[in-house]
Amino acid sequence: MLEDRAAAASPTPWPAAYPEGYAVVDVETTGLARDDRIVSAAVYQLDARGRVEDQWYTLVNPQRDPGPVWIHGLTTEVLADAPLFPEIAGELAKRLDGRVLVAHNAAFDWSMLAREYARARSTAPVRQRLCTIALSKELRLPLPNHKLESLAAHYGVVQQRAHHALDDARVLAEAFRPSLHLAAEAGLRLPLLACQPLTEWSDGPTATRSASIGYQPSYRSGTWRASRKRPACPYPNPGRYKAGEQLIQGMRVAFSGDTSVDRELLEDRAIEAGLHIATSVSRLTSLLVTNDPDSLTSKTTKARSFDTPVIDEAAFMQLLQHVVPARSEARGPSGA
Sheet harboring 276-278: ordered strands across? Predict the structure, then answer.
């Protein structure tokens, strides 16, 4: 009630161009690759001013190994009796319809949802998304990094079960509301992006197309554990990334600082896209990904000295969706 009175007493009118409702979404997945699947999903429906209207949560049987159990805690046994995505697609669509999808690193959550709906021969009723990382940057919030836990701590929101979709969605909904009000008071244009649903999907020649409940073996199963030994990149280094262009297979990418997506999963996704993960920054580094470009780490310092391009995690996730294939000639290890 205190929030409602404060909003009513505010001399600043609510921006007419702001959306009429939001769906705060979090999905847990088997990984970050194109063929990875959702294992749980949660939605908090918010009204135009960020007040909670409803909440919803479901497990999803991914029909394959559950991936990073040490992160999301969902084992094969737990997911065995969960519904398949086509069985929950309609209920999820009702909760998304007519609302702006809000997520922490929204490019990831949207891409996972779009692919699941395409597999189900349907489309998600989402036309716009809003990334809370981008909004935090627009508001210039004094965050040490762009993890959800840092945004939550900034607003005094207590997280109870990190990497549990329902609790992550709750935390984000509670943190999004004050950010939304700050943006409204400042007359800030929200960083909304268009969502283009996928209209067709192919899992490839080895995919299981049966609707029966069962697990499709993962090509990754058993290969991404503690040793983290990476295979040599098969593509030559095409040089530095150029702003406004796309990533090219073989580019050397280094990471610095915290990431909102688990670092190991982010690196796996980059490797699967054909990029080379560099453990340090040199004159050969194509790109540095960091959410803290002003920090004085050795990597950011070297990047500045070498004029190595620097982008944040959200932008990198966007670029990962459309990595340009390497030239067919001269495919060999690019070196460490």
Answer: 276-278, 252-256, 287-290, 310-311
Instruction: Round to the nearest angstrom and report the end-to-end CA distance of the chain.
Output: 58
Q: What confidence score (pLDDT) does residue 11 get? A: 54
The pLDDT of residue 229: 62
Query: What are the b/e assignments for 177-199, b being 16+ CB within 10 Å?
Result: bbbbbebbeeebebbbbebeebe
Q: Is 32 helix (H, G, I), strand (E, B) or coil?
A: coil
Strands (E), the chain: 21-29, 38-47, 52-59, 100-103, 128-131, 192-194, 252-256, 276-278, 287-290, 310-311
Cα separation values, 45 from 52, 54, 144, Å: 6, 5, 28
In angstroms, what CA-CA distances link 33 with 43, 50, 220, 277, 335? 22, 32, 10, 16, 24
Residue carrying structure tokens 């406004």: 244
The Cα–Cα gap between 135 and 176 comes to 9
The most confident of the ranges 26-35, 91-100, 190-199, 283-292 is 91-100
Phi, psi of 107 (to 5 degrees): -60, -35
| Average of per-residue pLDDT values in the chain | 85
Please give the Cα distance from 151 to 147 (Å, whole number): 7
Pure H helices in 99-204: 106-119, 132-139, 148-154, 165-186
Q: Is the full-model pTM beyond 0.85?
A: no
Query: For the chain, what percentages of helix, strand and coil (3-state, to nearest 5) are there?
Result: 30, 15, 50
What does the DSSP 8-state code read for residue 227? T
